[in-house]
TrEMBL record:
Family: Belongs to the binding-protein-dependent transport system permease family.
Name of the protein in question: NitT/TauT family transport system permease protein
GO biological process, one term: alkanesulfonate transmembrane transport
InterPro entries noted in UniProt: MetI-like, MetI-like_sf
Compartments where located: Cell membrane
Residues that span the membrane, as ranges: 70-89, 101-123, 129-151, 171-200, 220-239
The organism's place on the tree of life at top rank: Bacteria
Keyword annotations from UniProtKB, A to Z: Cell membrane, Membrane, Transmembrane, Transmembrane helix, Transport
Amino acid sequence: MQRSRRLPNALLGLLGGAIAIVAWWAAVTLPGGADGFVAQFSPLHALAALPGLVADEHLLSHVAASLRRVAVSLGWALVVGVPLGFALGRSKRFETTFSPTLQFLRMISPLSWMPIAVMSLGIGDRAVYFLLTFAAVWPLSMSTAAGVAHIDRRWVQLGESLAATRLEMLWHVYVPGVASHVLTGVRLAIGILWIVLVPAEMLGVSSGLGYLVLDARDRLAYGDLTAVVLTIGALGFALDCAARAARKFVGGMPGQD
């Protein structure tokens, strides 16, 4: 029964995508005609340009560069955000002391740091890593803090009654208890990373999807530009699906809510 439901849902999703493509084609083609300037951004031009971008490995190398930056920045965000969230959720005093400052920083747009990042770190990957990491830290820390706060206190009391060490408590109680929340934060962080990535890659780097958007614009290759935009959307959707699948898998394991 569940599989039979998934198939119609998938078909409905494909139908919605087809309707969106038709609406996109109509919006850029009908007002000025098939030979108009805006028609260069049609899905037909994008699909025609995509094989050429892939064939010469031009697109794939930029995709690899962008995915590398996302992976590195997500790794740094995990290193910073998970311990920070654990401290916020575990210690009321720590949360009371630092939560206002962290909430203030969280509300600053990562892109507003672009001039400071360039002047401090220079043009290149380091500035991009800083912006992406800053953007991804907050959903990870907030989700981790929520996970720690919602751990069943009976498990904590049981571990303490068995004289478990701090390391044993961390590994057998807290890590399983917050795993699904951390993965929820990872999914949110990936979404934010993917949004910030494109403008961040316009900071003078010579690779990446953001750079490729500017390059296609400067070459007046509007079909290529639209194809890159479609690639950005497809990759972001794939990353979100992977994060959602990991969250469901962990959430279905024994001991998870």
